[in-house]
Amino acid sequence: MSLQERVQAKAEERRWLILIVLCFSLLVIVLDNSILNVAIPRIQHDLHASTSQLQWMVDSYTLVFAGLLLTAGSLGDRFGRRSSLQFGFVVFGIGSLLSALSGNANELIGFRAFMGIGGAFIMPATLSIITNVFPARERGRAFGVWAATAGVAVALGPLTGGALLEHFYWGSVFLVNIPIVIVGVLAGVFLIPDSKDPHARRLDPVGAVLSIAGLSATLYAVIEAPDKGWLAGSTLAFFGVGALLLAAFFVWEVRTPQPMLDFSFFKNPRFSIASVSIMLTFFAMFGSLFVLTQYFQIVIGYTPIQTGVRLLAFAVPMMVIAPLTHRLMEWLGAKVVIATGLALFIAGLVFATGLDANAVYGDMVWRIVIMASGMALIMAPATDSIMGSLPLARAGVGSAVNDTTRQVGGAVGVAVIGSVYASIYTTKVVDGLIAKGASPDLIAAAKQSIGAGVAAANQAGKGFVDVVKLSFVDGFHSGLFVGAGVLVVGLVAVVMWLPARARAEDVDAQHAEHEAARSAVGVPKA
């Protein structure tokens, strides 16, 4: 038996150790975005970045990441998921180092985009390897641990970032990725089997180009719309180009004999409705965190590390609840669990609109716990529904669809909620400062960003600071209401169309594939 066959034969025996490695892989992806949120005010100051550039530091990564996911997942299915994971780690590590050494805002935006290439290969590989290594009876539990890791990383990022910023420069939030990347690469070499589709389809370069270009054009329009205007000519042009390219991608994939993405997957409501619920959850989560971290630091006045400590309230419910959701699904079914999670998330966002410029942490923490509890109930069951409805051999593309919905939802959430907050804030702050007789320089600074507005207002007097902060709070509340409204749509879809449990034919097909893979390398049947 070859070395690779021996590794494959031991894969199920080592499946929980493999899960730890894959959770490390996920950790570096999620940590990178959440850690950056805390560093935004420092980066804005040190690199003299505009509000648009700050948003692009988040979204350049997301744009490339989401645009490449389908292609990266398909390549992982064809050439090997471990190889995809290792390649992604190397690219991500190089991008992290270059980001830390950036000399201006535009360089950082470019290197963040390069990191997105690595992330696109890492993310789908984690889910597809879990799906292939774990038998169906344990997959829900594994996905629960995976989802809990994502939730913990969301909260661990601000805490880690805050601690680093207390002692080091802003680039340290990228250098922290390097040791995680090294551990992931080395552990992957010795632990993870390089599974792939045994009946790999031919490459689909036309589908790959159409999907990358279509997703990228659409996301570019979404990201730029808050700055240039949703009805601006350039925005509408990119939306139009994106729509045409994605329509062409759909027509090509339906007609080509061996498509990169089999659109018949979407006929299964467990796949399609769970994907919608994930997308809308990330819309609300990314968008609300984008404004919440600014609220904590600029309005309330917490330092980066104080913000990180307080955002741990996101982590605890995820750590406790997400690993238990497989039990809840066995008892209640996915429909009830996901719908309950969406209802809790909606309630948390609505309650958070009660926060004002003078709130204390006691006012915030219970609202955060409600939101986090809702997310914990959504993420693992929705992921299990998606991955449990697909053939194991197509797990890479299925995982990429799952990840694409997350990233598209997150990018649109930051753009839309950020746009709503910015438009309300700008209108309120200009009217308020003019009414108080503020100088043109102060008004211009406040229009540029909330951080610049507070800094300039501090020079002019407390009355001006109050106007800037209250204007932000009004925009903050409006953004949260938008997030809650979007989740209501998801809740209705889940209640109406998501099946409570897996179809028998999906379970039987995955079990047969899993046993065939075991037998191929001499592992006795379970």
CATH architecture of the largest domain: Up-down Bundle
Please tell me how large the radius of gyration is. Answer: 23 Å
State mean pLDDT (0 to 100 scale). Answer: 82
- The percentage helix is over 70%
Number of continuous helical runs: 21
Overall geometry: globular
Provide the domain count.
2
- CATH homologous superfamily classification of the largest domain: MFS general substrate transporter like domains
Termini separation (Å)? 21 Å
The level-1 CATH class of the largest domain: Mainly Alpha
Query: Sheet with the most strands?
Result: none
What structural class do you assign from the helix and strand content? mainly alpha
How many strands appear in the DSSP assignment? 0
Series of H and E elements? HHHHHHHHHHHHHHHHHHHHH
CATH topology of the largest domain: Growth Hormone, Chain: A
Unreliable sequence segments: 520-526
**Share of residues in strands:** under 5%
